[in-house]
Every structure is written in structure tokens, then in C-alpha cells.
Amino acid sequence: METTFIVDSMPLEICKNARANRSKICKENEFSFPSKGYCASQSSYYYGYKLHAVCSVSGVFQSFDISTASIHDIHFLQDIKHQMNNCTLIGDRGYLSTQVQTDLFNYANIKLDTPMRNNQKNYQKQKYIFRKSRKRIETLFSQLCDQFKIRNNYAKSFNGFKTRVLSKITALIFIQFVNVFVFNRKMNRLKIELI
Prior knowledge:
The chain has helices spanning about 75-85, 100-110, 130-135, 135-145, 160-180, and strands spanning about 5-15, 35-40, 45-55, 60-70, 85-90, 110-115. By secondary structure, the protein is α/β, with parallel strands linked by helices. The chain has one domain (about 5-180): Ribonuclease H-like superfamily/Ribonuclease H (Nucleotidyltransferase, domain 5), CATH 3.30.420. Helix 1 packs parallel to helix 2. It is globular and about 50 Å long.
């Protein structure tokens, strides 16, 4: 049983910023309205949603959720503490918060490990094994973008959008399952024929 997991988020743009004000995509219910957000890794603003995910070190999604783009990554951890316990969660600097770290540990015995900022008091570099492990979720996100085209949005309703995202993640997990239990191959070799 794995006790170390990785948390991260990725932007899911539904249209270009120039069309955001007149776009009617995913606006059938007020609770699901898309919003403008900022992606630090791409240094750009976008209009749409954000996919939050937790995966194991071996590369299997444990949990995921969709929020509007303006919601900060750290709010996803409030849901995680009800789903997981007694584990280590590795995140990037977007999850850096002493208050949240303490809350996760006290509520569910989850140790949140994030890299410290260089100017923080008592600065310590994050362990190499954690920095290396964090690349697993980045690889999964890249595979979802490149092979499964998760960023290409053709949905007009929020239900269609959610269904499309869920089907892409399900397809990735299915290929992982087939690789391990049918063909006895490495789990994350997704660019390979299934027959």
C-alpha cells in the first residue's frame, strides 16, 4: 500500500481570453460559470477551469476535481483531508501554507511536503526524492494533453465538459490497467498498441 502521493493542478481553457466576455460555453448554471485564472508554469492568463489531481508515485490517479480557474490550488486540499489519511502529500509552491499543513496533519495525519521559498526563514531544500517524484504527475498531465487531447474543448455545456474530462482520465487509467494486468508491461507506457 502506497503512502506517498503527489498533488498538482493544470489549466483547462474553454476559449481564448479575447472571446471570454461574449462566450456562452458552460454558462447554463451559475454555479458552474468558468472564470479567468493565471497559470504560473506557463506565465499566462486563461479562461476556463482547473483540473486538480492527486496521483500515487507509481502514476495512478487517486482523486481529481474540477474548479473554476480563479480558485487557488490550496482550496482543493480541504477536500483531500476527507478522502485520504496517514500519508505524505508532495506539492509545489502553490500549496505552501503553514496553516493548511497543520490542519491536514491534525485532521487526517497527512504530511504536506512543499518546497520552501528561497527567502523563507530556516530555508531547507526539498528532498531530492520528493522533487523527482513530483515529475510523475507532470508526466501524467502531459500525456493527458498530448495523447488524450484533454485541452481541446468541443463541449458547449458544463455537463458535456465534465463528461469529456472524465472520459479522458478513465481512458488513461484503463490503458494502465491493461498494461499491468493483461500484457504484463510497464504501467505508464501509454504510447503502445493494445493488441
